[in-house]
C-alpha cells in the first residue's frame, strides 16, 4: 500500500515537472498561408463532382472557387509521378495493373472516367485520363496544392521534391503522408518544401493535448490534417485546434461532405475543410 502511494506521488511529481517544462519554438510562417479565411480544399480535386484526381476535377474545383487542390501521387516504372489514389488502375479506369509496374505512357492509354459506383447517373467525356503530376502543375500553375505521398518508398519522395522545385512551386505546395518515416525522409531531402504531420505524429499530438502537455510537441511541420472522428473516437476538438495554432500549425479537417458538419467545424475554428463537394462548402462560406 505504501509502495503504491509513493508511486502515485512520483507520477504526480513527474507530471508537474513535464507541465512546467518550456515548450518548443513554434514553426515559422510560410507564404502558403496567405489568408485568414477558411480554405476550401477540393479532395482529389472534388471527387464528388468529377472523377477524382483528374485535371478535369481540379479545373472544375478552381472554377468553383476552391483555394487548394488535394491530390495523391504514385510513381510509375519509368519514374514519373501520376495523380492517383490507389496503387493500381483497376478502379475507375478501363485498364488493370500496378502503377509501379507500368510506364506513364501505358497508363495514359486508358480512360479514367469509369465511376459507375460514385456517379451512376452521370456521364463524362470519354477522353478523361490519369494525369501526370507535371501536367497538373502545367495546367494550374498558380494554384495551391496539398499532395499526399501514398507509397512508403524514398524514390517517390525524391521524385516529388525534384518536380516541385523544378516547377518553382515550393511556396504553393504542402506535402503529407500517413507514413511518418516517409515524411521524415522528405523533410531531410527537401527542407524547402513544407509538410504536414504524419499519422504517428498525429497520435502523439492528440495524446499530449489530452494530457495537457501539448507544449512538449516538437515538429518541423506546418499543418495537420485531421478527421472529425476516427475509429469511433472523437479527434477534432477546440482544444486541439487551439494547441495547433499555438504551435503555429494550420488545421485542415477531412473529409467533410455534410453541410451540417461543415458549419460545425468552421465554428470550431479550423483553417481549412477538405471535401469532395467544394460547391457545398463555398455556398456555406458565402452565406
Task: Describe this structure as you would to a colleague.
- This protein has 287 residues and is of the alpha/beta class.
- The chain has one domain: TIM Barrel, CATH 3.20.20.190.
- The protein has ten helices and ten strands.
- The strands form two sheets. Strands 1, 2, 3, 4, 5, 6, 9 and 10 form an eight-stranded mixed beta sheet that branches.
- A hairpin with a 2-residue loop joins strand 7 and strand 8.
- Helix 5 crosses helix 6.
- The longest helix is centred in the N-terminal third of the chain and has 19 residues.
- The termini are far apart.
- About 2% of the residues have low confidence.
List its traits.
287 residues, alpha/beta, TIM Barrel, 8-stranded mixed beta sheet, two-stranded antiparallel sheet, 10 helices
Q: How many structural domains are formed by the residues? A: 1
Terminal CA distance: 62 Å
Label the CATH architecture: Alpha-Beta Barrel
Number of helices: 10
Helices and strands: which structural class? alpha/beta
What would CATH call the class?
Alpha Beta
- Integer average pLDDT: 87
Report the biggest beta sheet as strand number plus sense, adding barrel if it closes.
Answer: 8 strands, mixed
Shape: globular
Beta-strand percentage range = 15-25%
Number of strands: 10
Low-confidence stretches: 14-20
What is the gyration radius calculated from CA atoms? 21 Å
Helix content: 25-40%
Using the coordinates shown, work out and report the CATH topology.
Answer: TIM Barrel
Amino acid at each position: 500500500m505504501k509502495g503504491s502511494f509513493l508511486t502515485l506521488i512520483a507520477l504526480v511529481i513527474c507530471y508537474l515537472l513535464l507541465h512546467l517544462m518550456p515548450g518548443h519554438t513554434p514553426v515559422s510562417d510560410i507564404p502558403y498561408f496567405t489568408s485568414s479565411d477558411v480554405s476550401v480544399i477540393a479532395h482529389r480535386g472534388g471527387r464528388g463532382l468529377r472523377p477524382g484526381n483528374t485535371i478535369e476535377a481540379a479545373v472544375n474545383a478552381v472554377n468553383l472557387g476552391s483555394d487548394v487542390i488535394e491530390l495523391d501521387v504514385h510513381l510509375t516504372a519509368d519514374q514519373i509521378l501520376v495523380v492517383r489514389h490507389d496503387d493500381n488502375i483497376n478502379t475507375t479506369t478501363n485498364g488493370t495493373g500496378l502503377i509501379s509496374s507500368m510506364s506513364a505512357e501505358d497508363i495514359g492509354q486508358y480512360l479514367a472516367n469509369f465511376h459507375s459506383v460514385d456517379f451512376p447517373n452521370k456521364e463524362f467525356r470519354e477522353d478523361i485520363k490519369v494525369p501526370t503530376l507535371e501536367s497538373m502543375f502545367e495546367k494550374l500553375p498558380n494554384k495551391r496544392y496539398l499532395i499526399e505521398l501514398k507509397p512508403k518508398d524514398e524514390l517517390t519522395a525524391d521524385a516529388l521534391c525534384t518536380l516541385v522545385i523544378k516547377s518553382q512551386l515550393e511556396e504553393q505546395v504542402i506535402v503529407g503522408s500517413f507514413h511518418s518515416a516517409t515524411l521524415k525522409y522528405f523533410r531531410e531531402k527537401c527542407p524547402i518544401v513544407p509538410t504536414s504531420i504524419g499519422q504517428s505524429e498525429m497520435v502523439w499530438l492528440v495524446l499530449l493535448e489530452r494530457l495537457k502537455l501539448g507544449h512538449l510537441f516538437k515538429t518541423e511541420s506546418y499543418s495537420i490534417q485531421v478527421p472529425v472522428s476516427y475509429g469511433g473516437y472523437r479527434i477534432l476538438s477546440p482544444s486541439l485546434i487551439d494547441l495547433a495554432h499555438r504551435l503555429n500549425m494550420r488545421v485542415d479537417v477531412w473529409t467533410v461532405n455534410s453541410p451540417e458538419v461543415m458549419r460545425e467545424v468552421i465554428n470550431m475554428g479550423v483553417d481549412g475543410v477538405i471535401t469532395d463537394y467544394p460547391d457545398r462548402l463555398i455556398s456555406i462560406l458565402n452565406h
